[in-house]
Each structure stands twice: as structure tokens, then as C-alpha cells.
Design a protein that fits this description.
Rossmann fold, about 20% strand, about 35% helix, about 600 residues, alpha/beta, 18 strands, 2 domains, single chain, 6-stranded mixed β-sheet
Length: about 600
């Protein structure tokens, strides 16, 4: 199963946010705006961390994280049967209270019609009353009507008519699955990779580590299927059982070493006045635990050492190598389960990978490789959630995976901007993807305080240079080469959807040498830009007629960026005041 939505309330800087989940979720934003708080809230839900006093927003008395799971398989539907809705999903809330307690509660789908509500079943055990209800045809014709019989009839009616019935969703009054404490891992495996961590912990054989979780599954599989392994366990059980007073069948063990019996007798003698006696029992060791406890990982990169003696970059790379192996291992197990259909489990088989700043210690090329691994992981029935400050871990084509985290107002707290609309279709989508090869760094726009959209490479080169000369340049503003005037509206549409401030800079293109049809075409392109501008977010700057003319370059001069750069850097160049004002406006 997968997460389809998350609601977080009163967790740290978050008063209330709702997230429409994706297979890949990338949380970006400035420092101290709440990215890590979102991930920690999800970890709290899964039982990976506990709520502490400072986790409660503004001294609130309770906080909660509510998750809707969808894409349930047959085993999930069986395990969580009580909570499965007509939409084939389940909704679960984990609440923590300021007194230190917490609870899991599931949502129950309840019909609006009171006669179909399970809580009212005892009202219809009198046959005359039951005969007037809409489910009466599903009751036995004779015999006493019990509450359970009424409930069964209600459920049958709901199942047969669920498309016509209106439902409401209510938190169940009892604990989730009837458990006071929901077992960690019941919703699936969680692999958390924090920003700062000793990678040796990931590769430790203990069950809480990423390696340990996978290794334990492999050990269990071998233990259940390998004949030598099975015989060894039997032999160990027999060997250690021979030391006990009774054998494995419970009968008196006549072959027990006399020394053990004498020791029990001597010890019991001194406890006689207490009415107690000693029984020495020797337990056979769990061979699975022995193999886990005695496993070590060594890395040989020319010098064979343990993981902690390697550099941070290699340690990080090893962690992601492990994630890829886990993903491939899960694929194989899923195929096996689908082929055999013999698996029986009481927990979800899902996997969730949660990562803080996975780009740390990695050079840009390695970051891009890691991102492709994470994308592949998210396309393999897993869900991947990460927060990052690196544009290399952003693919603008996957804009639905991007969540911009902001905290501009302390009273409102952390907010999230995401876009689920289809922004581009058909040729527009194809053209937008092609723009990547013009500007491979365009994902940087999601991190910018303000985005400057320009037509081409000359604008991208000259505008920041002139801003620097005028003393108005800002590093937190990003210039995006859109590739053409006609591509600018696509970027505007994207920026509008994520509420990112921008300014569109374009050429009027009314040069004297141009024919009227070309001028008309330029005007249409201008109109397409101006009509899509959101005045709350965007502005426009129009050059007369292009940047070369604004600079005072000779008409018809080569417009290559280097030619314009040489012109600006030549002795005696002076920017005219009207053009300087446009540059100041761009960077204001």
C-alpha cells in the first residue's frame, strides 16, 4: 500500500498542513522553514521517533499526524479489514498528548442512514422493528435476532448497495486493530537516512538498521528453506535439550548429565525453608541471531578497513548502494509472492524511504546519479520522501513531486505549495522538456527568491553582469534562459502554480529590418506573455527592440553572448540611464 495524503497538526513549526502524496516527494525551501519537521512528523507516525515536549506547536495539548493509505493488496485488505472503505483505502490518525501518552485510531466508514450503522444494531433485535428496516430481506426468517445477526445483515446490505449509499467517516472509538500500542512496522518498512549519521549504523546487522532489516529477511528465508540450516537447528535443539530435566516432548530426561541434577539438588536444599527449588534450564541459541550478531562489513578500496574509517563521500555512496540493493531485493520478493500466492502476513509489505539532504558529501555528478537511483526506487512500488537544498535533486519535468516549504508568517506557521494540475500537454510538454538541453540548470528556479525569465543566452549573460556593475546584483535571484520568447509563458505558468515571484524580460522585436508579418508574430508572442502574468507574483520588462539595441550595439551585429560581453567590457562603455533603470527594476 501507499500513502495518498498526509495531514500534520501542531507538530513543531506546523500548525496544520495537508500533503497530497506522490511516489516521489521532494521538500525544498529555505533553512528553518520546516522541511525536516515534515519528515520527522512522518517518522513519528510510523513509530520511528517519539513526540517530545518541544514537538508540540505553541504549547498545544495534543498533536496528530493523519495518513490515508491506498493501493492496498489482498493481504492489506485482510489485515486492516475493519477500516477499509468503499474507495479501498484506510485512514489512520496517530495522536500524541502533552502528558506523554499517544494513541492510534482508525477511521470507520459509517453510512449516513442510522439503520445501517453498526452502533445502532441492538435497536433492531425485535423482529417487528427489524422487519421495517431496509436490510430486512437479509435476515433469517425464523429464530431469535441477535445483535451480531443484525450487524451481518447491515454489512451485507452495505456491500451490495455501496454505490448508492452515502457515507461519513468517523474516528473509531477503540484502538487501531484493538491494540493499545500498534507494532512498529505494521504499515511497512521505513528506511530513514538522516543528514548527519555514521554510515556504519546503516550497515550494522541489528534489526533497526537498513542493512539489518534486509539481512534479517535473507537469513529468515535461508532458515526456512535450506535443509542444512534446518538440520543444524534441530541438532542444536537436541544437543541443548539433553541438558534439561525434561526432553522436548516433556518426558523425564534420563540421559541428563548427573552433575547438573546434583547442582540443582544442592541449591534447592538451601531454599527448602522458603518452599522453593531450583530448576536449571538450558536454551538452545537461535542460529539466526548468531549469524546476524557475528556479521561484519569490510570495504576494500585498496585498503581494507571497516566503514567508519572511509571518507564521508564513500560512506554516503555505500548507503545509497544499499538502498538500491534493498529495492531490487523487494522486486524479487514481490515477483516470488505473486507467483506462489502462499504468503501470509499481518503487516503491510510496503516500503518508505525517508532521506534528509542526500546530497551531502557528494559531488554534483554523484548527486545526479543518486537522484536517478531515487527516481528508480520511487518507480518500483516504493515511496521516497526527501528534503534537499540541491537543484541536482530536482527534475522540473516531475513538478508534481516538488513541495515548496515556507514559513513567512509565524502565526500561520509552515505552509506547503504543490501543484497537481496538468500544466503541459502534447506539444507544449514536448517543447518544455526540450528546453532542458538549453538550460540544464533550470531546476534552480525552485530555490530562488525571484526568477528572471529571459529569451536567450545573451540576456542570461549580460543582465547579471550589468546588475553587478550597477551594484544591484543579488545571488538569491535566478536567471532562466527559456530558449525563446514563446517558451516564457510555460515557465510563467509553472511559477504561478508554485507562487514563486518572477519577472519576464522579453524583446519587443519591432526592428526596422523586420517585415510586418514578423512584427505581427512578435506581438502575438508578447500578448501570450502579458495575458498569463499574475500581477501578485510577476512583472514584465520589454526591451526596445532587443538587448543589443538597448546596449547601443550596431544594428545587425552578431548577437552571440561573447560579442555582447566584449562590447560591455570594452573601455568607454557606458550604460544609458533608461536601460540602467530597467536593470534596476529587474533586480529590485
Amino acid at each position: 500500500m501507499k500513502i495518498s495524503s498526509i495531514i500534520i497538526s501542531n507538530w513543531r513549526s506546523i500548525k496544520c498542513v495537508e500533503i497530497k502524496a506522490q511516489d516521489l516527494m521532494i521538500f525544498i525551501g529555505q533553512n528553518n522553514h520546516g522541511k525536516s519537521n515534515i519528515l520527522s512528523a512522518i517518522l513519528f507516525f510510523f513509530g520511528e521517533i517519539k513526540a517530545q515536549e518541544l514537538d508540540f506547536n505553541n504549547d498545544s495539548k495534543e498533536l496528530f499526524v493523519e495518513v490515508v493509505f491506498t493501493d492496498l493488496d489482498d493481504y492489506d485488505k485482510s489485515t486492516f479489514k475493519k477500516y477499509v472503505t468503499s474507495n479501498t483505502d484506510i485512514k489512520v490518525r496517530k495522536t500524541a498528548f502533552s502528558n506523554g501518552n499517544f494513541e492510534y485510531r482508525g477511521y470507520i466508514q459509517n453510512p449516513n442512514d442510522e439503520s445501517l450503522q453498526e452502533s445502532n444494531a441492538s435497536n433492531y433485535t425485535i423482529r417487528a422493528i427489524a422487519a421495517e428496516q431496509i436490510f430486512c430481506d437479509l435476515l433469517p426468517e425464523t429464530g431469535k435476532l441477535t445483535k451480531n445477526i443484525i450487524i451481518d445483515a447491515q454489512k451485507q446490505y452495505v456491500e451490495k448497495n455501496k454505490d448508492e449509499i452515502e457515507f461519513q467517516y468517523q474516528l473509531d472509538e477503540s484502538n487501531f486493530l484493538g491494540l493499545k500500542t500498534v507494532a512498529k512496522g505494521i504499515f511497512g518498512d521505513v528506511y530513514f537516512i538522516p543528514a548527519i549519521k555514521d554510515s556504519s549504523e546503516d550497515f550494522a546487522p541489528k534489526d533497526t538498521s537498513a542493512f539489518g532489516k534486509m539481512y534479517s529477511k535473507i537469513i529468515q528465508k535461508i532458515s526456512d528453506s535450506d535443509n542444512d540450516w534446518i538440520e543444524t537447528k534441530k541438532s542444536l535443539s537436541k544437543l541443548f535439550g539433553a541438558l534439561n530435566k525434561n526432553n522436548n516432548e516433556g518426558d523425564l530426561n534420563n540421559n541428563r548429565p548427573q552433575e547438573l541434577t546434583e547442582l540443582e539438588t544442592k541449591l534447592s536444599k538451601y531454599l527448602k525453608n522458603w518452599g522453593a527449588e531450583i530448576n536449571i534450564e538450558v536454551l538452545a541459541p537461535n542460529i539466526d541471531d548468531i549469524f546476524r550478531a557475528n556479521t561484519q562489513i569490510w570495504i576494500d578500496d585498496g585498503v581494507k578497513t571497516d566503514i567508519r574509517r572511509k571518507g564521508n563521500g564513500l560512506q554516503r555512496a555505500l548507503t545509497f548502494a544499499l538502498i538500491n540493493v534493498i529495492s531490487n531485493h523487494q522486486k524479487e520478493n514481490q515477483i516470488d509472492a505473486e507467483e506462489t500466492k502462499t504468503s501470509s502476513r499481518t503487516r503491510s509489505n510496503s516500503s518508505f524511504f525517508i532521506l534528509e539532504e542526500p546530497e551531502l558529501y557528494l559531488h554534483p555528478q554523484a548527486q545526479r546519479a543518486i537522484f536517478q537511483s531515487l527516481v528508480s526506487l520511487s518507480e518500483s512500488k516504493n515511496q521516497v520522501m526527501l528534503c534537499t537544498h540541491a537543484s541536482t535533486l530536482i527534475d522540473i519535468d516531475k513538478y508534481k513531486s516538488i513541495f515548496i516549504v515556507k514559513r513567512d508568517n509565524e502565526s500561520i506557521g509552515t505552509t506547503i505549495n504543490q501543484c497537481l494540475d496538468e500544466l503541459f500537454t502534447d506539444d507544449a510538454k514536448k517543447n518544455f522538456n526540450l528546453n532542458y538541453w538549453i538550460n540544464p540548470d533550470r531546476s534552480e528556479l525552485f530555490f530562488a527568491k525571484k526568477v528572471i525569465l529571459v529569451e536567450g543566452a545573451t540576456d542570461k549573460t549580460i543582465i547579471p553582469l550589468l546588475a553587478d556593475k550597477l551594484g544591484v546584483f543579488r545571488h538569491d535571484y535566478t536567471v532562466i534562459d527559456c530558449g525563446s520568447k514563446d517558451s516564457i509563458p510555460q515557465y510563467i505558468k509553472l511559477l504561478n502554480s508554485f507562487s514563486i515571484p518572477y519577472i519576464a524580460v522579453y524583446d519587443k522585436d519591432h526592428q526596422i529590418k523586420k517585415q510586418q508579418p514578423a512584427i505581427n508574430s512578435a506581438d502575438i508572442s508578447t500578448t501570450n506573455i502579458t495575458k498569463i502574468i499574475d500581477s501578485k507574483l510577476g512583472q514584465i520588462i520589454c526591451f526596445n527592440n532587443d538587448i543589443e539595441e538597448e546596449l547601443g550595439m550596431t544594428a545587425g551585429n552578431n548577437s552571440k553572448p561573447y560579442v555582447a560581453l566584449q562590447y560591455v567590457e570594452a573601455d568607454g562603455f557606458k550604460i544609458n540611464e533608461k536601460f540602467a533603470e530597467k536593470i534596476r527594476t529587474i533586480y529590485e
